Amino acid sequence: MNIKTFKQYASGGFSYVDENNNLLGTGTTTDSAAPDPENLTGVFIYCQNPSRSLYASVSATNPVTVTLKDGTTTSVTNRKKLMEDLAEFFFYRVTTATAPNLDSVLSAGNNAGANTIDMNAQDITNVDEIETKVIKTQLLSNLDIQADLDIIFNPGGQIDANGKTLNMRNGEIHAAHLIHGRNNTDFKVQAKGTGDLILETNNVERLKITAAGNLIFNFFYTIELIAALTVDFYAPFNLKINSISNLVNSPTTTILDDGVVYTLGNTITAGSKITVTVNTAAVVNLNTIQV
Prior knowledge:
Mean pLDDT is 86; it is low at 92-97. It contains 2 helices and 18 strands. The strands form 4 sheets. A 6-stranded antiparallel β-sheet has the order 9-10-11-18-13-16, with no helix packed on it. Strands 3-2-1-7-8 form a 5-stranded mixed β-sheet, covered by helices on one side. The protein has helices at residues 79-90, 102-106; strands at residues 5-8, 14-17, 23-26, 32-35, 42-48, 51-57, 64-67, 73-76, 197-201, 204-209, 215-225, 230-234, 239-248, 253-257, 260-261, 267-268, 273-278, 282-290. Among the domains are: 5-106; 215-290. It is mainly β.
């Protein structure tokens, strides 16, 4: 129902009248007005007597008449002027000794429901702090929180995602002090599909469990070469010797792979004979990884 005239009476009361001079409602101190966020010439009126929503569209080609109790009549041609007139002459304004909070103002008349703010899909910007109990979205929509810098969660208790999934797709979790499962319950770490499960320390891969179930890990052979300066042993699986560490003395160490001089870092196939020779009695570690 579109308002064409706002009319004030000598008693101080007022009414809403359409273009056909039909009475749409009588104003009360709990009526309120709000600009239409989509139509820049429109004004919503929330009328309490009778309870209904009214509308006024105002422009240079569609003026609205405002008549005051002293007989002054103004043809209003823009929304800003209409809102100013309504605030000054018609609608309830709180004049208590202390300033009202927004909750009290909203309870006076609000189409979104008592004490509720409906932003009609518009933005709230430049907010310093929001204190709340629950943040939720409408069904079938995501809650998107964006920040140029860090997003900091600082609860008094825990961040509780009980029964929910934390999706870190293409992301990382940093600086975690401890990750543990529920008490007396198996704890599962899973690499999905054909992915390998890899554990690293000091930026070095220490253990890999492949998608096929092979266990690949860094280890070392301790070779005693005191009674004899040459020792043979066989590769139990494909492996690489990456480095040699001296435990006793500082010998010159050579390695043969099936009789051929071995270069550190090359693959030695399962079943190959590995020959280690030193030039003086020693004990060495062969730092090795399964491949």
